Amino acid sequence: MIDKSKDIYSFLLSIEIYSVVIPSLLILVLIFLSWRLMPCIRSIYSALRIKRHVKKLGSKTLSNIKLPDGVDGEVYIDHIVLSGEKLIVLDVKQFDGLIYGNENLDQWTQVVNQKNFQFKNPLMQIQNHVLAVRSIVPELDIEGAVLFAGSSHFPKRRPEGVLVLNDLPKRAKDTAVPDHVLSNWKQLCEYR
Question: Is the C-alpha dihedral spanning 41, 42, 48, 51 positive or negative?
């Protein structure tokens, strides 16, 4: 009789331990996974946020498109937006911190946590992207711009041709697109 009560007691004790240990382990696993996946989740959220804002610049958008550069190579373009009778070619930069640069400098500087990082002038790169688009649809008006989408700030002067995500329109432009522009747009869509 005593053996049965010890068995029941040990059984109840083991259930109590498992009811604490298993949920605790599950919580630890979830914390670890969320910590490991957080950069990926942030990246996906940021990309969706950018895409949502870019769509508000015009009636149609192409994203992540490769075009011939005219010299046996290709250029990768983040976004092309159809806005009325013109195209806007966007290159997105996910930078944080302070950004120093202007149209005429070859190198720009990013300052994050009192550390300086140099990078090529993105306005020069966007000019190459505009030329690639123009080689496919030469009759359209094409603008280029660099979109800074991180928490970056230009403490001096923001250069011409640079946009900041928070400065983009809050709602989509509703502009009519002429037929000749739409036929050119379809030419670009073939490169998707």
Answer: negative
Into how many domains does the chain fold? 2
pLDDT digits (tens, 9 = 90+) for 14-50: 666 666 667 777 888 888 877 777 778 778 888 888 8
d(CA 36, CA 59): 38
Long-range contacts of 106-114 (CB under 8 A, 24+ apart): 110/152
> Which residue spans within the chain are E strands per DSSP?
60-68, 74-83, 86-93, 97-100, 107-112, 115-120, 141-148, 152-153, 162-164
Select from 123, 120, 132 the least CA-distant residue to 160: 123
What is the spatial distance between Cα 67 and Cα 135, in angstroms, rounded to a whole number? 10
What's the pLDDT at 177? Answer: 82
pLDDT tier at 72, thresholds 50, 70, 90? confident
Q: Are 64 and 15 found together in one domain?
A: no
Do residues 129 and 179 make contact, with C-beta atoms less than 8 angstroms apart?
no
Residues spanned by the domain of 67:
56-189
